[in-house]
Amino acid sequence: xxxxxxxxxxxAEMLQLVKHTLEKGGDFQVSTCDNGRQAWDEIIxxxxxLLVLDVMLPGIDGYSLQLKIAQxxxxxxxxxxxxxxxxxxxTLFQKFPQVVGFMTKPxxxxxxxxxxxxxIQRSAKTS
Length: 127
Prior knowledge:
This protein is of the alpha/beta class. The chain contains 5 helices and 5 strands, in the order E-H-E-H-E-H-E-H-E-H. The protein has helices spanning 12-25, 36-46, 62-71, 90-93, 109-126; strands spanning 3-8, 28-33, 50-53, 80-84, 99-104. Helix 4 links the parallel strand 4 (80-84) and strand 5 (99-104).
C-alpha cells in the first residue's frame, strides 16, 4: 500500500516537481496543498504518513503550522521534511523531533526521494 504524503508549498511548479519525484521514485501517493490556511484541514483529512512543508506560505506560515502539528496528539508524531529557500530557518525547526529532514531550495530530486524514504522507514520502526 502506498504511503500517503502531503506536500504544502505555495509554488505550483514546486508542488508538481515534488509530487512527480515522489510518485515516480517510490511507493508514494502524493496530495498537495498550496496555502497554510487550508493545510491543517488537509492534514486532518488525509492523515499523511509524511509531510513535506514549505516555510513561507500564505495564510499560516510553515513554522506556525509546525507548532500546531507538534501540539496536537493526533499529529505530533508525523514525520516532516521542511523544504524551503530560507536556510536560516533551520534553527527554528531543530527543536521539533518530528522534523526529520531539512532541505533548501534548489534541491536535488534524488536527495528528496532518499529523505522521504528514510523518514517513512524511521516512522515505521517507531510506530
